[in-house]
Amino acid sequence: MLLAPVEYYRPDTIDEALEALQTDGARPLAGGQSLISILKLRATTVDLLVDISRLDDLRSISVADDGSVTIGAGVTYDEMAMSPDLHHAYPGLSTIAAHTVDAQVRNRGTFGGNLCHNDPINNFPPFVVAVDAVMHATGANGSRDIPAGEFFTGYFTNALTDDELLTSVTLPPLNGRSIGYQEIEIGEAAARAVAIVAMSNGSIESASVALGCLPIPVRRPAVESALAGADSTPEAVAEATAAAGDGIEPVSDADASADYRRAMAPVVAKRAVLEAIQGGHHG
Length: 283
Ligand SMILES: Cc1cc2nc3c(=O)[nH]c(=O)nc-3n(C[C@H](O)[C@H](O)[C@H](O)COP(=O)(O)OP(=O)(O)OC[C@H]3O[C@@H](n4cnc5c(N)ncnc54)[C@H](O)[C@@H]3O)c2cc1C
Known about the structure:
This protein is α+β, with helices and mostly antiparallel strands. It has helices at 14-20, 35-40, 77-81, 84-89, 91-98, 103-108, 111-117, 124-130, 148-151, 221-227, 234-241, 258-277; strands spanning 7-9, 26-29, 48-51, 61-63, 69-72, 134-139, 142-147, 152-154, 157-158, 165-171, 178-184, 191-200, 203-212, 218-219, 281-282. The strands form four sheets. Strands 4-5-10-6-7 form a five-stranded antiparallel beta sheet. Strands 14-13-12-11-15 form a five-stranded antiparallel beta sheet. Helix 10 (221-227) runs antiparallel to helix 11.
């Protein structure tokens, strides 16, 4: 189906974009890889598309002296995949970006669009939750920081107000921790886990574990507690991650049932932790 008639505006500055977003029915357009399809399907209506894809202020990747990384919301997956700075500071993230979907989407799709859209199949929401990233937003009433754990509010929704933009995301330093990222690909994805693991003398010192393929990506505190101090053997990791699916509320769709997703949560959590232990992606 063709796009319904819609106004289009491409601002030169963030301030101009924010002013335009004050208009009723206005919505940011980034890479358009989700929004344009949704509009064509008539699943939502928009009166004014505010094209933020060429705002230079949203398009940089910077690494601070402490190893933290700030990624502009408008940085494309391709730019993430090809950034030597990101690869050095967060090798796992560049690898995920490099393997997301296909070349066409990677060329247009943006980190911020992926996070704001919060499709449960999207790769990056559980990642930012696992690393405790900070989301930087700005709107007519000023700027604010939102912890990643509070950014995702439900199926395709986030904590931004209609007149706010996500401008960038700061990932804390990895400080030698390793990243594991595992998914079960049925359709787009049926289950996904991200693990960030610190080792000490051959045992697990600490771990954070987040699950994706959910309306809201979640951390698994009970699993994290069980992993802290555990042996790094497959048996010990399997035991510590066994309860990863407890209490989660996945959706049933054409790709997988909720029960299957719940059953696969411990499987991907265990594999992600073991991947991190066995080298994973070091920062
Ligand atoms: C066929 C196909 C398969 C895909 N498969 C996957 C997959 O397996 N894994 C994966 O991770 N991704 C996948 N994607 C991409 C994924 O759907 C992303 O959600 C998409 O790329 C969104 O990024 P975008 O820059 O194109 O955003 P857009 O489509 O332009 O915008 C998406 C939404 O976010 C809002 N938005 C965008 N930027 C901002 C901002 N800075 N501040 C506030 N709101 C904002 C928009 O208003 C809109 O509501 C796929 C895409 C396609 C087309």
